[in-house]
Amino acid sequence: MMPSASKSIAISSSTALFLIVIVLPSSIFLSPVVVAAAAASSNSTADPTPTPWPHQFHSILFMNYTGSLQLIDLWYDWPKGRNFNIIQDQLGKLLYDLEWNNGTSFFYTLDSSKECRTAQLEVGILRPNWLDGANYLGQQHVDGFLCNVWEKVDFIWYYEDVVTKRPVHWLFYTGRAAHVMTFEVGAVLEDEKWQAPAYCFENAPSPKAKHDSVIGFQERLMDGVLTGSMSLPM
Ligand SMILES: *[C@@H]1O[C@H](CO)[C@@H](O)[C@H](O)[C@H]1NC(C)=O
Ligand SMILES: *[C@@H]1O[C@H](CO)[C@@H](O)[C@H](O)[C@H]1NC(C)=O
Ligand SMILES: *[C@@H]1O[C@H](CO)[C@@H](O)[C@H](O)[C@H]1NC(C)=O
Questions:
Q1: Fewer CB within 10 Å, N- or C-terminus of the chain?
Q2: CA of 48 to the centre of ligand 1 (A)
Q3: Whose CA is closest to 153, among 134, 172, 139, 127?
Q4: Residue 230 within a domain
Q5: pTM for this predicted structure
Q6: Which of 4-13, 39-48, 150-159 shows the lowest per-residue confidence on average (mean pLDDT)?
Q7: Could you give the number of structural domains in the chain?
């Protein structure tokens, strides 16, 4: 069984998937720039590899999912085994998505609605090298930056600035898109902020889900920062 968070995403994205899956990824494959670059690099040992994530950083992400816009404050903290997405829906809810490396995630609001949901995943937060093994697709201009492009398990397309090696953009097979607005390497959020509110501890977490590693990886991506799409099923 998938935890309800993933299930609700899977259901809500299934119609979009039908419309978009084929269109967006194939538009990447058909891009003349990408195809030309990929064809030129027949020596695969020369292919660039994605830069691992810094062990601690803060990033502001502008998200667009078929016109639904969000700003996400992402605090990635690998040494302390935690990852935080603070998600502002446009003119809407402010949602906190706090993930621990032991697989526990908390999704909550801090307003009077006092909503909270927890999930227990088989996998921890994304590792700094989570992009290892991605397929190199060549170079493409995105958001005005010349980027190296990779694809991982037909699930995510990842764009990294050729010069600075910073992430610029990523795109899910569902069509959900992230644009990286700031990328502060070494920035750390104070410990006090990493505390789920008391009302998160009133109900036990949902039962542990069993998954193979690829499913676990995808589930973590879907559950976490890279989507920033959580809606609380209340
Ligand atoms: C690939 O390219 C690199 C650098 O251009 C070269 O050193 C290496 O011998 C090439 N490998 C193959 C298998 O052609
Ligand atoms: C969001 O994405 C849609 C396509 O899904 C596009 O038409 C729209 O212009 C985008 N909006 C912004 C603000 O980028
Ligand atoms: C995981 O760690 C968090 C933070 O320390 C804690 O609140 C949560 O209960 C832990 N989950 C498990 C299953 O131990």
A1: C
A2: 13
A3: 134
A4: no
A5: 0.74
A6: 4-13
A7: 1
Which ligand lies nearest the alpha carbon of 70? 2
Mean pLDDT of 178-185: 98
95-119 pLDDT, tens digit each: 999 999 999 999 999 999 999 999 9
Ligand nearest to the CA of 208: 3
Return the CATH number at 135. 2.50.20.30
- The residue segments making up the domain with residue 216 are 4-223
Any residues with CB less than 8 A from the CB of 55 and at least 6 apart, and which?
Answer: 77, 78, 79, 128
Beta strands in 38-124 (DSSP E): 56-65, 68-77, 82-89, 94-100, 104-108, 116-120
Ligand 2 touching residue 23 (CB < 6 A): no
* Residue 45 CB–ligand 1 contact under 6 Å: yes
Atom 8, ligand 2: which residue's CA is nearest? 67
- Atom index in ligand 2 nearest the CA of residue 20 equals 5
Question: Does residue 101 belong to any structural domain of this protein?
Answer: yes
For residue 7, pLDDT over 50 is answered with no
Best of 97, 102, 120 for a ligand 3 pocket test (most atoms within 8 Å of beta carbon): 102
How much distance in Å is there from the Cα of 124 to the middle of ligand 3?
11
Q: How far is the CA of 82 from the centre of ligand 3 (A)?
A: 11
Sequence-distant (≥ 6) Cβ neighbours of residue 118 within 8 angstroms: 104, 105, 106, 107, 200, 203, 205, 206
In a domain, residue 233? The reply is no
**Domain assignment present for 234:** no
